[in-house]
Amino acid sequence: ALHAGFQEVEQELPGAEDLDGAARALMRLQDVYGLSVKGMANGLFQPASAGRPPLYSPSRRVSLSADDCFHVGKVAYDTGDYYHAIAWLEEAVSRFRLSYGSWNPEEERGSLEDALDHLAFSYFMAGNISRALTLSREFLHYDPSNQRVTRNVAKYEKLLVTGGDRVGGPLQRPNVTHLHNRDAYEELCQGLGAQVGLATGCRGPPTPRLAPSPRPLRPSRPQPAPEQPSRLHCSYETNGSPHLLLRPAKKETLRLQPYVVLYHDFVSDAEAETIKRLAGPWLQRSVVASGEKQQKAEYRISKSAWLKDTADPAVRALELRMAAVTGLDLRPPYAEYLQVVNYGLGGHYEPHFDHATSRESPLYRMKSGNRIATLSAVQAGGSTAFIHANFSVPVVKNAALFWWNLRRNGDGDGDTLHAGCPVLAGDKWVANKWIHEHGQEFRRPCSRDPQD
């Protein structure tokens, strides 16, 4: 009966992939937000840079165990990422030392010897032979009969005699080949820089932030200058729609190039909870386009589901409101179904375009052209960072963010390169509506200027 009961709930329990994913999420938060490993292990979201206040102060601090830190370090170790492995294994070693000799109730948990062994080899691979030798000698103090580590000690001693220690500056983070704007992305996610574009009279929290750029993001084009506040404003909009007559949309213009606007109080709490409830049973790991196929990728960590407007009156009401504020035709096949996305701790989506950049993209299978616009309603979570435009939009609960992906001539707008910053605490719920070119010819017509 116990075995049958376990099998029934087994699919709902976290597995090895979830555990390793949690470890990678902690390393992602460490990198993007510049967090201290020791602080994270103590339950604090404390930046590694001295003098900076905590990014988030939880009401109840939960510390990581020595084994937790060891597992994070081992996930990095197993992929040859010794930069992260050393930081987390050092923390694991210090915590194991404090509890050495105490009873270990779980056979498969790590130990001080395991952590010392992995940390020593990580330092060896990083070129710090002296540190590798010191840790290996400490290992032999606890397990003097281990022949492999004994041979390693002899090897390290010989390397030091022959000048094999290659210790230089601090160990560098591994290069990420697919993320060419990492510095700008991380600065925007951290919310560094002055606030810009705040119209007088706008209600709600400040929205756009501009990040400093010590180097050009794209060599071929200069950095965009901050736009004049007088051109950015708030307004009540009916857009000529009867759906907005009694309840006008609260529109805040954030940027003009690219054109980005925020609609405050776009979704009610009741609607948000209904959409989350409907999507919950259908959530699956999100995929990305890769040529003509779609596949999972580390640069997009989330779960998503698709809802038709017939799923519930709340979905239908939201779709009508989206059509009213955009003035676009959202009927199939001119727009995709509502995509509901959930990002857990560390969930993110690195810089990307919403529109297809290749004619081979699966988006063209809809036979309705490219994605002309994006409307994204957010419940809570990480900021949206526009990398080339050099600003980020912190989350405003139940608001909706709108922008045009394509220029009027049909070309993709390079300034819409954007990212979903990792979730630092709690989770993030987003409802995306992607609207296609076909069906919008008279709603957003081409201009007389072919370059527009």
Lay out the secondary structure.
Elements (H helix, E strand, L loop, with lengths): L1 H9 L5 H17 L4 H5 L24 H13 L3 H17 L13 H14 L3 H14 L4 H15 L20 H9 L18 E2 L23 E4 L11 E8 L2 E6 L4 H11 L4 E2 L2 E3 L2 E3 L4 E2 L1 E5 L5 H14 L11 E6 L4 E5 L18 E10 L3 E3 L4 E3 L5 E6 L13 E3 L7 E9 L16
Antiparallel strand pairs: 1-14, 2-3, 3-4, 4-15, 5-9, 6-7, 8-11, 9-10, 10-17, 11-16, 12-15, 12-17, 13-14, 13-16
Helix pairs in contact: 2-4, 4-5, 5-6, 6-7, 7-8
Secondary structure tally: strands:
17
Q: How does the overall form come out from the CA principal axes?
A: elongated
Fold-level CATH name of the largest domain: Jelly Rolls
**Distinct helical segment count:** 11
Q: Describe the sheet with the most strands.
A: 9 strands, antiparallel
Distance between the termini: 69 Å
The structural domain count equals 2
Subunit structure: Heterotetramer of two alpha-3 chains and two beta chains (the beta chain is the multi-functional PDI).
EC number: 1.14.11.2
Subcellular location: Endoplasmic reticulum lumen
Domain Fe2OG dioxygenase: 334-437
Structural description of this entry:
The longest helix is centred in the first third of the chain and has 17 residues, at 16-32. The chain is elongated. By secondary structure, it is of the alpha+beta class. It has two domains: 1-163, Alpha Horseshoe (Serine Threonine Protein Phosphatase 5, Tetratricopeptide repeat); 230-436, q2cbj1_9rhob like domain (Jelly Rolls, Sandwich), CATH 2.60.120.620. It contains eleven helices and 17 strands.
